[in-house]
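Form 7-S
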Amino acid sequence: MNYNAPINSWWRSHVTLKTLYLLFLGQLVSFTLALMSFTSSLIADLGVDAPVTQSAFTYFSLALVYGGVLLYRRQRLRVAWYWYLLLGFVDVQGNFLVNKAYQFSSITSVTLLDCCTIAWAIVLTWLFLGTRYSLWQLLGAALCVLGLGLVLLSDAGGDGGGGSRPLLGDVLVIAGTIFFATSNVGEEFFVKKKDRVEVVCMIGVYGLLVSAVQLSILELKSLESVEWSTNILLGFAGYAASSFMFYTLAPFVLKLSGATMFNLSLLTADMWAVVFRICFYHQKVDWLYFLAFGIVVIGLVIYSTTEKDLNPMPDLENRISDLQYQILDKENVASTNEPSDS
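Output:
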């Protein structure tokens, strides 16, 4: 009796070129996220407290490159500007809170707690997109939350893994994941329904505008006190380059699979974070981190293997389209009521 036949059959039916392509893209995104975490932690260690400024360089590069593509195409926006303003605002706040957390917590804690984005994404898609989840998926999400609780326990009972105020850093990360989940869900919706280049460009444009306002309020004094050096400039350049690649690659994963595969791929960034911490910071890693990582992996495997091919409910799309058509109708009526020149 050939016991390998069922395994071979499952392998042929599930492991396709598209699956391998998605896994490859997901790992590229994960590695760029790990580089973002590393460079942000490096900037914090150099005594620079300017999280909004870090992100501003990223949004500027996105607006410059993808804005040039849109100008070359000469196409009108497919989504109203205020939706992009909202998307840019929540994305800036997510980056601000997570980058700020590096001032108080370790790179390992921040990257592990980033997994909390999955739990918030479940809640947001259930509330706003009408997605429904099975009990197995909820069990997997619960295990992820349990693993995150172990990270908090380790930071509260130990030296915080090298952070000055680890609990405050953990709270900032968790708050940032709420904004990241909102940004991920919104970006997935617009990328699947509209144009990828337009979405990334508008995140850059409105993210840069929000960052400029927030920077002028919160970080001018902090920037004046910075003693700029080659290492600091290289840290900012490294963060801008890695985050540009992250925003460039992320829409491909979101469009081809969705937020679940996207966040599952990002899990391996935690492994890179541990490698960076051991190799570059020469810090010891608490055993609870490995236990937490194992529990999070089990939870994500349960969630991903029981996931169905769920598409967003059309309600939100219809509401957005109806609102845009109402605005266009009002503009058309106003134009017809204007007196002609002849």
